[in-house]
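Incident log, structure service

09:12 report received: a user says their structure output differs between two submissions of the same chain.
09:20 pulled the input from the user's history:
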Amino acid sequence: MANTDDKTTLKITLEDLEKVSVSGDAHAVAVAAAATSAVRQYGNIASPGAEPVIKDEGKSNIFLQGWFYLGVAGMLGAVLGWGICEPRFLDGGGRLWGNFLIIPLVVALMCFGFGVAESIVERSLNKALWRGLLSLVLGFVGGIVFDQIANLIFVIAVGIVAELGVHTARNPAFWIARGMAWMVFGVAGGIVYGLVDRSGKKIRYGILGGIIGAGLGGMIFDPIALGTNAGAPSRAIGFALLGLATGVAMGIVESALKDRWLYVAAGPLAGKQFILYKPLTVIGSNQQADIYLFKDPSIQATHGSIELRGAQTFLHAEGPVFVSGQPAKNRTLQSGDLIQIGRYAFHFRERQRK
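09:34 re-ran on a clean worker, output below:
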């Protein structure tokens, strides 16, 4: 009797395998699975504990560099001040209001540009409005005061170079004398720049950058006048270079002397750096926050803060914050830490202390 448990043996030959076809969808799944196993998966703020890797999105964004937007703002402000006063300005000295107001107005609008530039870059229009108004008032008052100081310095410097036998504007010694006088305008710009942000350190950096930039602008004013052989064009170019050089120098000095800062690696402001000046820097979606984060509904009005306490830096979080992939509430920051807040990512950096 035949065994009913016996079953026919299944044999698959090479010819059978050649006839098998894999559907496109199945092939795609297989490829995706292989890729998943081959590629390392990195975490985000939804998967704390995984190693975060952030691609730097803003390395080449020149528009977010301080020296660039401060330079452009200073130049536009100075040119606007010149343009308002030039129609009522008389060469050789006159009693028209343009002769009396051209320097104060140039300084005031240059300060206005410095005051609003950073807030505009950060898309904080509310902050730009009140900073701009404050900068305009302080800049105009400072322009009147510092104009008198600059005139005094110029008279003294010209007297000194005259004693050395220099009696013409074609001599570089005369250019240096004007540059020394114009340094005063840079001081005014630096003071106002720091005052509107209520930062003593920013005032010091602004003054140093302003002295360098305005001094250079003053020294090339007379060569420009000699080259153009005309009053209005030389003043236009000279004041434009005054604002440009002052703003660029302020931005470079700030960046060179900073000791602690946040570099935005990802998000709408990728490529910008926030220098930590204040003892307490507030971060959030409120436009009045020191670091305003926009276009992300998950970020609270006051999402967190960074506190400077001596040589240490502390992060205090009120909303979800991740540091190097780990959720953080109160944490001491170390140079190189990656901070993630919503769609934004920051590298915390500090200058190495000797």
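09:41 both user submissions now match this output. Likely a transient worker issue. Closing.
09:42 reviewer note: The longest helix spans residues 125-163. The chain has nine helices and eleven strands.
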